[in-house]
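re: ur question from yesterday

yeah so i grabbed the chain u mentioned. its 428 aa long if i counted rite. heres the sequnce exactly as i have it in my notes:
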Amino acid sequence: MAADPEPESPSACDRLMEEVCERENLQQALKRVKANKGAPGVDGMTVQALPAYLREHWPSIKDALLNGTYKPQPVRRVEIPKPDGGGVRKLGIPSALNRLVQQAVLQVLQRQWDPTFSDSSYGFRPGRSAHQAVARAQGYIQAGHGWVVDLDLAQFFDRVNHDILMSRVASRISDKRMLKLIRAFLTAGVMEHGLVGATDEGTPQGGPLSPLLSNLMLDDLDKLLEQRGLRFVRYADDCNVYVRSERAGQRVMMGLKAFLTGKLKLTVNEAKSAVAPPHTRKFLGFTFSSREQVKRRIAPKALTRFKERIRELTQRTRGISVDQMIGTLKRYLTGWRGYFGFCETPSVLKRLDEWIRRRIRCFFWKQWKRGRTRFKELTARGVSRDLAARTVGSPHNAWRLSCSPALGLALPNRYLRSLGLPSVGPAG
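ran it thru and got these C-alpha coordinates back, copy pasting raw so excuse formatting
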Protein backbone atom coordinates (compact mmCIF):
# COMPACT_ATOMS: atom_id res chain seq x y z
CA MET A 1 0.00 0.00 0.00
CA ALA A 2 1.35 3.45 -0.95
CA ALA A 3 2.30 5.87 1.79
CA ASP A 4 -0.22 8.63 2.60
CA PRO A 5 0.34 11.72 0.46
CA GLU A 6 1.94 14.63 2.33
CA PRO A 7 -0.77 16.75 4.04
CA GLU A 8 0.96 19.85 2.62
CA SER A 9 0.13 18.99 -0.99
CA PRO A 10 -3.22 20.73 -1.64
CA SER A 11 -4.35 18.09 -4.13
CA ALA A 12 -4.23 15.43 -1.38
CA CYS A 13 -5.89 17.70 1.19
CA ASP A 14 -8.66 18.66 -1.20
CA ARG A 15 -9.48 15.08 -2.04
CA LEU A 16 -10.29 13.89 1.48
CA MET A 17 -13.93 13.28 0.60
CA GLU A 18 -12.90 10.95 -2.24
CA GLU A 19 -10.82 8.99 0.28
CA VAL A 20 -13.83 8.80 2.61
CA CYS A 21 -16.00 7.37 -0.18
CA GLU A 22 -13.48 4.73 -1.28
CA ARG A 23 -14.96 1.26 -1.24
CA GLU A 24 -12.31 -0.24 1.07
CA ASN A 25 -12.68 2.60 3.59
CA LEU A 26 -16.48 2.20 3.61
CA GLN A 27 -16.33 -1.57 4.04
CA GLN A 28 -14.04 -1.12 7.03
CA ALA A 29 -16.37 1.56 8.46
CA LEU A 30 -19.43 -0.66 8.03
CA LYS A 31 -17.63 -3.50 9.79
CA ARG A 32 -16.81 -1.23 12.74
CA VAL A 33 -20.33 0.20 13.01
CA LYS A 34 -21.82 -3.31 12.96
CA ALA A 35 -19.33 -4.52 15.59
CA ASN A 36 -20.21 -1.60 17.89
CA LYS A 37 -23.92 -2.48 17.56
CA GLY A 38 -25.61 0.52 19.24
CA ALA A 39 -29.24 1.64 19.39
CA PRO A 40 -31.11 3.11 16.41
CA GLY A 41 -31.14 6.90 15.94
CA VAL A 42 -34.10 9.18 15.18
CA ASP A 43 -35.05 7.29 12.00
CA GLY A 44 -35.36 4.00 13.91
CA MET A 45 -33.05 2.17 11.47
CA THR A 46 -31.03 -0.60 13.09
CA VAL A 47 -27.41 -1.33 12.26
CA GLN A 48 -28.55 -4.71 10.86
CA ALA A 49 -30.81 -2.96 8.33
CA LEU A 50 -28.01 -0.65 7.16
CA PRO A 51 -26.36 -2.86 4.45
CA ALA A 52 -29.66 -3.34 2.59
CA TYR A 53 -30.39 0.39 2.79
CA LEU A 54 -26.94 1.20 1.42
CA ARG A 55 -27.32 -1.18 -1.52
CA GLU A 56 -30.32 0.83 -2.61
CA HIS A 57 -29.34 4.38 -1.68
CA TRP A 58 -25.53 4.52 -1.71
CA PRO A 59 -25.17 6.20 -5.16
CA SER A 60 -27.24 9.22 -4.08
CA ILE A 61 -25.54 9.37 -0.62
CA LYS A 62 -22.12 9.28 -2.30
CA ASP A 63 -23.13 12.08 -4.69
CA ALA A 64 -24.31 14.21 -1.77
CA LEU A 65 -20.99 13.67 0.04
CA LEU A 66 -18.89 14.47 -3.04
CA ASN A 67 -21.01 17.53 -3.91
CA GLY A 68 -20.87 18.81 -0.34
CA THR A 69 -24.66 18.68 0.05
CA TYR A 70 -24.97 15.78 2.56
CA LYS A 71 -27.22 16.69 5.49
CA PRO A 72 -26.89 14.59 8.66
CA GLN A 73 -30.07 13.83 10.59
CA PRO A 74 -30.45 15.15 14.14
CA VAL A 75 -29.09 12.93 16.91
CA ARG A 76 -31.43 11.20 19.33
CA ARG A 77 -30.85 12.39 22.87
CA VAL A 78 -30.71 9.79 25.63
CA GLU A 79 -29.72 10.31 29.24
CA ILE A 80 -27.80 7.66 31.13
CA PRO A 81 -27.03 7.91 34.85
CA LYS A 82 -23.36 8.61 35.60
CA PRO A 83 -21.65 5.64 37.28
CA ASP A 84 -20.79 7.63 40.41
CA GLY A 85 -24.41 8.71 40.83
CA GLY A 86 -23.55 12.35 40.09
CA GLY A 87 -26.36 13.28 37.68
CA VAL A 88 -26.78 12.07 34.11
CA ARG A 89 -24.60 11.90 31.03
CA LYS A 90 -26.32 13.07 27.86
CA LEU A 91 -25.58 10.89 24.87
CA GLY A 92 -26.49 11.82 21.33
CA ILE A 93 -27.21 8.73 19.28
CA PRO A 94 -26.65 9.44 15.57
CA SER A 95 -28.67 7.46 13.01
CA ALA A 96 -27.00 4.29 11.73
CA LEU A 97 -26.19 6.01 8.41
CA ASN A 98 -24.62 9.00 10.17
CA ARG A 99 -22.55 6.64 12.30
CA LEU A 100 -21.27 5.00 9.12
CA VAL A 101 -20.36 8.33 7.50
CA GLN A 102 -18.71 9.57 10.71
CA GLN A 103 -16.73 6.33 11.02
CA ALA A 104 -15.58 6.61 7.39
CA VAL A 105 -14.48 10.22 8.01
CA LEU A 106 -12.80 9.23 11.28
CA GLN A 107 -10.66 6.58 9.59
CA VAL A 108 -9.34 9.06 7.02
CA LEU A 109 -8.69 11.91 9.46
CA GLN A 110 -7.24 9.70 12.20
CA ARG A 111 -4.55 8.41 9.84
CA GLN A 112 -3.44 12.01 9.23
CA TRP A 113 -3.90 13.55 12.67
CA ASP A 114 -3.02 10.83 15.14
CA PRO A 115 0.76 10.85 14.47
CA THR A 116 0.83 14.58 15.33
CA PHE A 117 -0.81 14.17 18.77
CA SER A 118 1.09 14.18 22.06
CA ASP A 119 2.81 11.08 23.38
CA SER A 120 1.12 11.80 26.75
CA SER A 121 -2.40 11.56 25.33
CA TYR A 122 -3.95 8.09 25.60
CA GLY A 123 -7.73 8.34 25.13
CA PHE A 124 -9.44 6.98 22.00
CA ARG A 125 -6.24 6.51 20.05
CA PRO A 126 -5.23 3.42 18.08
CA GLY A 127 -2.80 1.21 19.97
CA ARG A 128 -3.22 3.16 23.22
CA SER A 129 -5.15 2.26 26.34
CA ALA A 130 -6.27 3.41 29.78
CA HIS A 131 -3.87 0.86 31.33
CA GLN A 132 -0.92 2.52 29.58
CA ALA A 133 -2.08 5.91 30.90
CA VAL A 134 -2.33 4.58 34.46
CA ALA A 135 1.13 2.94 34.24
CA ARG A 136 2.64 6.20 32.94
CA ALA A 137 1.11 8.15 35.84
CA GLN A 138 2.48 5.55 38.25
CA GLY A 139 5.97 6.01 36.75
CA TYR A 140 5.87 9.76 37.39
CA ILE A 141 4.80 9.27 41.01
CA GLN A 142 7.48 6.62 41.53
CA ALA A 143 10.07 9.08 40.14
CA GLY A 144 9.26 11.51 42.96
CA HIS A 145 6.50 13.69 41.55
CA GLY A 146 4.42 13.46 44.69
CA TRP A 147 1.72 16.02 43.83
CA VAL A 148 -0.93 15.82 41.16
CA VAL A 149 -2.80 18.64 39.46
CA ASP A 150 -6.05 16.81 38.79
CA LEU A 151 -8.06 18.73 36.19
CA ASP A 152 -11.71 18.01 35.55
CA LEU A 153 -13.42 19.80 32.68
CA ALA A 154 -17.10 20.50 33.36
CA GLN A 155 -19.33 18.73 30.80
CA PHE A 156 -16.54 18.87 28.26
CA PHE A 157 -18.35 17.15 25.39
CA ASP A 158 -21.41 19.40 25.84
CA ARG A 159 -19.45 22.65 26.13
CA VAL A 160 -17.01 22.58 23.22
CA ASN A 161 -17.16 25.88 21.35
CA HIS A 162 -17.90 25.08 17.68
CA ASP A 163 -16.02 28.07 16.24
CA ILE A 164 -12.85 27.31 18.20
CA LEU A 165 -13.06 23.63 17.26
CA MET A 166 -13.72 24.38 13.58
CA SER A 167 -10.75 26.76 13.45
CA ARG A 168 -8.56 23.87 14.67
CA VAL A 169 -10.08 21.56 12.03
CA ALA A 170 -9.64 24.17 9.26
CA SER A 171 -5.95 24.56 10.10
CA ARG A 172 -5.49 20.87 9.18
CA ILE A 173 -7.99 20.43 6.35
CA SER A 174 -8.50 22.42 3.17
CA ASP A 175 -11.23 20.25 1.60
CA LYS A 176 -14.24 22.61 1.85
CA ARG A 177 -16.74 19.74 1.58
CA MET A 178 -15.14 18.03 4.57
CA LEU A 179 -15.21 21.24 6.65
CA LYS A 180 -18.87 21.73 5.77
CA LEU A 181 -19.67 18.11 6.68
CA ILE A 182 -17.94 18.27 10.08
CA ARG A 183 -19.71 21.56 10.86
CA ALA A 184 -23.01 19.88 9.84
CA PHE A 185 -22.35 16.99 12.23
CA LEU A 186 -21.72 19.44 15.07
CA THR A 187 -24.86 21.48 14.38
CA ALA A 188 -27.18 18.64 13.29
CA GLY A 189 -29.40 19.36 16.26
CA VAL A 190 -30.76 17.08 18.92
CA MET A 191 -34.09 15.33 18.96
CA GLU A 192 -35.58 15.31 22.43
CA HIS A 193 -39.20 14.41 23.24
CA GLY A 194 -40.03 14.46 19.52
CA LEU A 195 -38.74 18.03 18.99
CA VAL A 196 -35.51 19.02 17.28
CA GLY A 197 -33.47 21.67 19.04
CA ALA A 198 -30.40 23.42 17.58
CA THR A 199 -26.96 22.68 18.99
CA ASP A 200 -24.65 25.66 19.12
CA GLU A 201 -21.98 24.02 21.28
CA GLY A 202 -20.73 20.55 22.17
CA THR A 203 -19.72 17.50 20.17
CA PRO A 204 -22.35 14.77 19.83
CA GLN A 205 -21.18 12.39 22.55
CA GLY A 206 -21.98 9.00 21.12
CA GLY A 207 -20.81 9.62 17.54
CA PRO A 208 -17.60 7.91 16.29
CA LEU A 209 -16.01 11.23 15.31
CA SER A 210 -16.49 12.90 18.69
CA PRO A 211 -13.40 11.46 20.47
CA LEU A 212 -11.08 12.49 17.61
CA LEU A 213 -12.47 16.03 17.64
CA SER A 214 -12.06 16.21 21.42
CA ASN A 215 -8.42 15.10 21.10
CA LEU A 216 -7.89 17.79 18.47
CA MET A 217 -9.42 20.44 20.74
CA LEU A 218 -7.28 19.40 23.71
CA ASP A 219 -4.14 19.06 21.60
CA ASP A 220 -3.57 22.76 22.39
CA LEU A 221 -3.52 21.89 26.10
CA ASP A 222 -1.05 19.03 25.47
CA LYS A 223 1.27 21.30 23.47
CA LEU A 224 1.22 23.93 26.22
CA LEU A 225 2.12 21.33 28.89
CA GLU A 226 4.91 19.98 26.67
CA GLN A 227 6.33 23.47 26.06
CA ARG A 228 6.48 24.00 29.81
CA GLY A 229 8.30 20.70 30.21
CA LEU A 230 5.61 19.29 32.53
CA ARG A 231 4.93 15.61 33.13
CA PHE A 232 1.33 14.82 32.40
CA VAL A 233 -1.06 12.09 31.31
CA ARG A 234 -4.29 12.84 29.48
CA TYR A 235 -7.10 10.42 28.72
CA ALA A 236 -9.89 12.24 26.81
CA ASP A 237 -10.97 15.08 29.12
CA ASP A 238 -9.27 13.57 32.17
CA CYS A 239 -5.89 15.29 32.61
CA ASN A 240 -3.36 14.79 35.42
CA VAL A 241 -0.14 16.81 35.73
CA TYR A 242 2.55 15.49 38.11
CA VAL A 243 4.81 17.92 39.97
CA ARG A 244 7.22 17.81 42.92
CA SER A 245 5.59 20.28 45.33
CA GLU A 246 2.21 21.67 46.29
CA ARG A 247 3.37 25.17 45.41
CA ALA A 248 4.36 24.12 41.89
CA GLY A 249 0.96 22.39 41.61
CA GLN A 250 -0.98 25.52 42.58
CA ARG A 251 1.01 27.55 40.04
CA VAL A 252 0.30 25.01 37.26
CA MET A 253 -3.40 24.86 38.20
CA MET A 254 -3.73 28.66 37.96
CA GLY A 255 -2.02 28.77 34.58
CA LEU A 256 -4.09 25.92 33.16
CA LYS A 257 -7.40 27.38 34.35
CA ALA A 258 -6.56 30.70 32.69
CA PHE A 259 -5.59 28.92 29.45
CA LEU A 260 -8.62 26.61 29.32
CA THR A 261 -11.20 29.29 30.12
CA GLY A 262 -9.54 32.09 28.15
CA LYS A 263 -8.18 30.35 25.07
CA LEU A 264 -10.39 27.27 24.67
CA LYS A 265 -13.56 28.67 26.35
CA LEU A 266 -13.85 25.53 28.49
CA THR A 267 -14.97 25.43 32.11
CA VAL A 268 -12.89 23.79 34.84
CA ASN A 269 -15.04 21.95 37.36
CA GLU A 270 -13.81 23.49 40.64
CA ALA A 271 -15.48 20.89 42.85
CA LYS A 272 -13.79 17.97 41.09
CA SER A 273 -10.37 19.51 40.38
CA ALA A 274 -7.59 19.68 42.96
CA VAL A 275 -3.89 19.85 43.71
CA ALA A 276 -3.27 16.89 46.04
CA PRO A 277 -1.10 13.85 46.82
CA PRO A 278 -1.90 11.19 44.16
CA HIS A 279 -3.01 8.55 46.71
CA THR A 280 -5.97 10.81 47.62
CA ARG A 281 -7.20 11.09 44.00
CA LYS A 282 -8.51 8.61 41.48
CA PHE A 283 -7.42 8.32 37.85
CA LEU A 284 -9.35 6.13 35.39
CA GLY A 285 -10.74 3.99 38.23
CA PHE A 286 -7.37 3.51 39.94
CA THR A 287 -5.47 5.19 42.74
CA PHE A 288 -1.90 4.70 43.98
CA SER A 289 -0.39 3.59 47.28
CA SER A 290 1.56 6.22 49.20
CA ARG A 291 4.42 3.89 50.11
CA GLU A 292 7.98 3.99 48.81
CA GLN A 293 7.10 1.39 46.17
CA VAL A 294 4.11 2.93 44.38
CA LYS A 295 1.42 0.33 43.66
CA ARG A 296 -1.72 0.55 41.54
CA ARG A 297 -4.87 0.10 43.60
CA ILE A 298 -8.54 0.04 42.72
CA ALA A 299 -10.10 3.39 43.63
CA PRO A 300 -12.56 3.13 46.58
CA LYS A 301 -15.42 4.49 44.45
CA ALA A 302 -14.82 1.80 41.81
CA LEU A 303 -14.91 -0.89 44.52
CA THR A 304 -18.16 0.49 45.94
CA ARG A 305 -19.69 0.51 42.47
CA PHE A 306 -18.54 -3.05 41.88
CA LYS A 307 -20.13 -4.30 45.11
CA GLU A 308 -23.39 -2.49 44.35
CA ARG A 309 -23.54 -4.15 40.94
CA ILE A 310 -22.80 -7.62 42.38
CA ARG A 311 -25.53 -7.10 44.99
CA GLU A 312 -27.98 -6.26 42.21
CA LEU A 313 -27.00 -9.30 40.16
CA THR A 314 -27.21 -11.74 43.09
CA GLN A 315 -30.51 -10.53 44.51
CA ARG A 316 -32.88 -13.38 45.21
CA THR A 317 -35.88 -11.12 44.49
CA ARG A 318 -35.00 -10.86 40.79
CA GLY A 319 -36.85 -14.12 40.20
CA ILE A 320 -34.20 -15.71 37.99
CA SER A 321 -32.61 -19.16 37.95
CA VAL A 322 -29.12 -19.90 39.25
CA ASP A 323 -27.92 -20.44 35.66
CA GLN A 324 -29.19 -17.06 34.52
CA MET A 325 -27.67 -15.35 37.53
CA ILE A 326 -24.27 -17.01 37.01
CA GLY A 327 -24.46 -16.14 33.28
CA THR A 328 -24.91 -12.39 33.87
CA LEU A 329 -22.38 -12.47 36.68
CA LYS A 330 -19.84 -14.18 34.43
CA ARG A 331 -20.16 -11.52 31.72
CA TYR A 332 -19.81 -8.70 34.22
CA LEU A 333 -16.92 -10.25 36.19
CA THR A 334 -14.94 -11.14 33.06
CA GLY A 335 -15.13 -7.55 31.80
CA TRP A 336 -14.40 -6.10 35.22
CA ARG A 337 -11.40 -8.33 35.78
CA GLY A 338 -10.11 -7.51 32.29
CA TYR A 339 -9.86 -3.89 33.40
CA PHE A 340 -9.30 -3.86 37.17
CA GLY A 341 -7.14 -6.99 37.21
CA PHE A 342 -4.43 -4.46 36.30
CA CYS A 343 -4.26 -3.47 39.98
CA GLU A 344 -1.32 -4.62 42.10
CA THR A 345 -3.25 -5.64 45.21
CA PRO A 346 -4.02 -9.37 44.87
CA SER A 347 -5.28 -9.53 48.48
CA VAL A 348 -8.14 -7.12 47.60
CA LEU A 349 -9.15 -9.32 44.66
CA LYS A 350 -8.95 -12.42 46.85
CA ARG A 351 -11.31 -10.83 49.40
CA LEU A 352 -13.71 -9.86 46.63
CA ASP A 353 -13.72 -13.45 45.39
CA GLU A 354 -14.63 -14.71 48.87
CA TRP A 355 -17.35 -12.08 49.18
CA ILE A 356 -18.87 -12.97 45.77
CA ARG A 357 -18.95 -16.66 46.70
CA ARG A 358 -20.74 -15.77 49.94
CA ARG A 359 -23.32 -13.81 47.95
CA ILE A 360 -23.94 -16.86 45.76
CA ARG A 361 -24.26 -19.28 48.70
CA CYS A 362 -26.71 -16.81 50.18
CA PHE A 363 -28.65 -16.83 46.87
CA PHE A 364 -28.88 -20.65 46.95
CA TRP A 365 -30.00 -20.66 50.58
CA LYS A 366 -32.81 -18.23 49.83
CA GLN A 367 -33.67 -20.14 46.65
CA TRP A 368 -34.20 -23.31 48.70
CA LYS A 369 -36.66 -21.33 50.87
CA ARG A 370 -38.28 -23.95 53.12
CA GLY A 371 -36.67 -25.97 55.89
CA ARG A 372 -37.51 -29.31 54.30
CA THR A 373 -35.97 -28.32 50.93
CA ARG A 374 -32.90 -26.93 52.67
CA PHE A 375 -32.36 -30.13 54.66
CA LYS A 376 -32.80 -32.27 51.51
CA GLU A 377 -30.38 -30.10 49.47
CA LEU A 378 -27.71 -30.08 52.18
CA THR A 379 -27.79 -33.83 52.81
CA ALA A 380 -27.90 -34.60 49.06
CA ARG A 381 -24.71 -32.55 48.73
CA GLY A 382 -22.80 -34.55 51.32
CA VAL A 383 -23.58 -32.67 54.57
CA SER A 384 -24.23 -34.95 57.58
CA ARG A 385 -27.86 -35.12 58.74
CA ASP A 386 -26.87 -33.72 62.12
CA LEU A 387 -25.05 -30.65 60.70
CA ALA A 388 -27.83 -30.14 58.13
CA ALA A 389 -30.49 -30.17 60.85
CA ARG A 390 -28.52 -27.72 63.03
CA THR A 391 -28.01 -25.33 60.09
CA VAL A 392 -31.64 -25.45 58.99
CA GLY A 393 -32.78 -24.84 62.57
CA SER A 394 -30.34 -21.98 63.13
CA PRO A 395 -31.83 -18.57 64.09
CA HIS A 396 -29.19 -16.76 62.04
CA ASN A 397 -30.07 -14.94 58.82
CA ALA A 398 -29.05 -16.06 55.32
CA TRP A 399 -25.98 -13.80 55.15
CA ARG A 400 -24.61 -15.17 58.43
CA LEU A 401 -25.25 -18.74 57.30
CA SER A 402 -23.63 -18.19 53.89
CA CYS A 403 -20.23 -18.72 55.53
CA SER A 404 -21.35 -21.63 57.73
CA PRO A 405 -19.53 -25.00 57.53
CA ALA A 406 -22.62 -26.71 56.05
CA LEU A 407 -22.92 -24.32 53.10
CA GLY A 408 -19.15 -24.42 52.57
CA LEU A 409 -19.39 -28.22 52.28
CA ALA A 410 -22.54 -28.24 50.16
CA LEU A 411 -21.41 -25.49 47.79
CA PRO A 412 -17.60 -25.61 47.71
CA ASN A 413 -15.56 -23.25 45.53
CA ARG A 414 -14.93 -26.14 43.15
CA TYR A 415 -18.68 -26.53 42.57
CA LEU A 416 -19.18 -22.79 41.99
CA ARG A 417 -16.36 -22.87 39.44
CA SER A 418 -18.01 -25.80 37.70
CA LEU A 419 -21.13 -23.63 37.27
CA GLY A 420 -18.97 -21.19 35.28
CA LEU A 421 -18.27 -18.62 37.97
CA PRO A 422 -15.01 -16.85 37.05
CA SER A 423 -12.56 -15.60 39.64
CA VAL A 424 -11.45 -11.97 39.86
CA GLY A 425 -8.44 -12.89 42.01
CA PRO A 426 -5.01 -14.17 40.92
CA ALA A 427 -6.11 -17.81 41.08
CA GLY A 428 -9.14 -18.78 43.04
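noticed a couple things. Residues 9 and 174 are 10 Å apart (CA to CA). also Residues 1-11, 191-198 have pLDDT under 50 and may be disordered.
anyway ttyl
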